[in-house]
């Protein structure tokens, strides 16, 4: 992948269109920039949604009158806290923790926790904003939130990760609850971290409140398919996009960036459905495997041993590791960015298009820059925006909450079938909304409008909140 970029300046990234025909939306955007200085990723995410909304504002002046868009752009609550812990050498470490409780119109705040050194308030705010619309699209009773810390789990021992998680939860617990706010995983937070976090919550709250976190282990309240859900769901969504064009996945050459939770299960489902993934990556470079990525080896290297992606190439003949390489230079028909925000820029998009790429489905949150999105859309590439395509993870989290509430657990087949149906429904909603608003095939517009309207209508019913 390209080195992820952070935009400099006033927050209008290259490739962003003017907010057509609406001074109000332009004013709202500038108020967001003023009120959230230096939070460039948040500006970018807001701008993308506002671009889709001009058409709604024209049709629904009532919404503008009651300032619903301004209200939706302002998080309900933001918590920032100190996290102190001791490393294995006995040295004291100080990190910063965040939880942005963005919108609870449709249900308790719901969204993952990210542990990565790049995390700042702007990162968490953009993710919480996106999550609000994504969760609305699932049709499930969940509001939007996101949290995390600038903690870097890389190279840390299990004990260090445990001490960090315990300290983090010692502050965060007071803001959580099955009916209040339900975190899960994201970058740097998987089943190990959720275990330590749940253990600490249980100690402090003195109750076994299964539904307070999702992504739990299968032996203690987790749901089958949650681990696989984001990747599987993104492939289901991709499959729907292809079907809508009369195409199929069979035999397609694919690239998946990243090699974490989302990427691994994206590769797994692509292979199950007859496609072939020839490259994946991590922040150190990419591996190229013409025979198709060997999934057991990828899982061994990444999930079990937590090694760099180069270890994959070292252990498999006929493969190549390209240190610092850009995975998008590998020719493919289908690209699934599944690592991080702004990892695929305009140049990458042009390269993909000229190499014959026909579809992109975003497993990550906001991985394609605005310029990249424009390049794909202008070239007629089917472009599945993250808040629709990667909603399978949080949707299955909601299924986990449902199982916890009824003290039940469902089998794999049934749960996967629920996920597949949810992804089909999201695709249909987004597709039909785009058509209704005069932009057939524009999944960005369809997702933003459909998600926005669901949240806005609930907020309207609640009065001025
Ligand atoms: P993981 O931590 O499991 O994996 C992240 C992968 O992306 C790793 O291969 C990592 O490489 C790479 N990566 C992360 N940050 C960077 C960076 N700044 N530069 C280059 N590479 C990077 O995370 P997930 O798979 O859970 O998350 C991936 C994406 O999917 C994120 O955007 C997340 O928000 C999104 N997402 C996750 C969901 C989930 O259920 N987990 C649900 C929906 C969306 P390295 O190890 O070298 O850092
Ligand atoms: O971005 C996302 O949707 C996630 N990280 C999953 C959130 C969740 O609550 O399962």
Number of domains: 3
Task: Estimate what percentage of residues fall within beta strands.
Answer: 5-15%
Total number of beta strands: 12
Bound ligands: NADPH dihydro-nicotinamide-adenine-dinucleotide phosphate, (2Z)-2-iminopentanedioic acid
On the 0-100 scale, what is the average pLDDT?
96
CATH homologous superfamily label of the largest domain: NAD(P)-binding Rossmann-like Domain
Query: N- to C-terminal separation?
Result: 41 Å
The CATH topology of the largest domain is: Rossmann fold
CATH architecture of the largest domain: 3-Layer(aba) Sandwich
Return the structural class.
Answer: alpha/beta
**Main sheet summary:** 7 strands, mixed
CATH top level label of the largest domain: Alpha Beta
Identify the quaternary structure here.
single chain
Number of helices: 17
Order of helices and strands: HHHHEEEHEHEHHEHEEHHEEHEHEHHHH
- Rg over CA atoms, rounded to whole Å, is 21 Å
Poorly predicted runs: 6-11
The main sheet orders its strands as 9-8-7-6-10-11-12
| Net shape | globular
Range of helix content: 40-55%
């Amino acid at each position: 992948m390209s080195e992820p970029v952070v935009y400099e300046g006033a927050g209008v990234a290259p490739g962003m269109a003017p907010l057509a025909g609406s001074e109000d939306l332009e004013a709202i955007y500038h108020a967001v920039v003023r009120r959230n200085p230096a939070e460039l990723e948040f500006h970018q995410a807001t701008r993308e949604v506002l671009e889709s909304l001009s058409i709604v504002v024209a049709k629904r002046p009532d919404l503008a009158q009651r300032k619903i868009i301004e209200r939706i752009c302002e998080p309900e609550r933001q918590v920032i806290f100190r996290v102190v812990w001791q490393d294995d050498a006995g040295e004291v470490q100080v990190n910063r923790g965040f939880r942005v409780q963005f919108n609870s119109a449709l249900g308790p705040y719901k969204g993952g926790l990210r542990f990565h050194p790049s995390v700042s308030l702007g990162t968490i705010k953009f993710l919480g904003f996106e999550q609000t619309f994504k969760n609305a699209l699932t049709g499930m009773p969940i509001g939007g939130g996101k949290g995390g810390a600038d903690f870097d789990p890389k190279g840390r021992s299990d004990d260090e990760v445990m001490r960090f998680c315990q300290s983090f939860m010692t502050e965060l617990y007071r803001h959580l609850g099955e009916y209040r706010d339900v975190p899960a995983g994201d970058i740097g937070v998987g089943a190990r971290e959720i275990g330590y976090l749940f253990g600490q919550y249980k100690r402090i709250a003195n109750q076994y409140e299964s539904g307070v976190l999702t992504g739990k282990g299968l032996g203690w309240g987790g749901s089958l398919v949650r681990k696989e859900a984001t990747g599987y769901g993104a492939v289901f969504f991709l499959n729907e996009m292809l079907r809508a064009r009369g195409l199929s996945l069979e035999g397609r050459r694919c690239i998946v960036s990243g090699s974490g939770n989302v990427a691994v299960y994206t590769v797994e489902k692509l292979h199950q459905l007859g496609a072939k993934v020839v490259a994946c990556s991590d922040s150190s470079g990419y591996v190229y495997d013409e025979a198709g990525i060997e999934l057991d080896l990828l899982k061994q290297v990444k999930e079990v041993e937590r090694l760099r992606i180069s270890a994959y190439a070292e252990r498999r003949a006929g493969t190549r590791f390209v240190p610092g390489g850009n995975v998008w230079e590998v020719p493919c028909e289908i690209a699934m960015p599944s690592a991080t925000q702004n990892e695929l820029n305009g140049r990458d998009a042009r390269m993909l298009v000229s190499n014959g790429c026909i579809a992109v489905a975003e497993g990550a949150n906001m991985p394609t820059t605005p310029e990249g999105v424009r390049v794909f859309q202008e070239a007629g590439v089917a472009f599945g925006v993250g808040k629709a395509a990667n909603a399978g993870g949080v949707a299955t989290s909601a299924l986990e909450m449902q199982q916890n509430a009824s003290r039940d657990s469902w089998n794999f087949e049934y749960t996967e079938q629920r996920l597949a149906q949810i992804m089909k429904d999201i695709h249909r909603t987004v597709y039909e909304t785009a058509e209704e608003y005069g932009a057939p095939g524009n999944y960005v517009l369809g997702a933003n409008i459909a998600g926005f309207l669901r949240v806005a209508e609930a907020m309207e019913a609640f009065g001025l909140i």
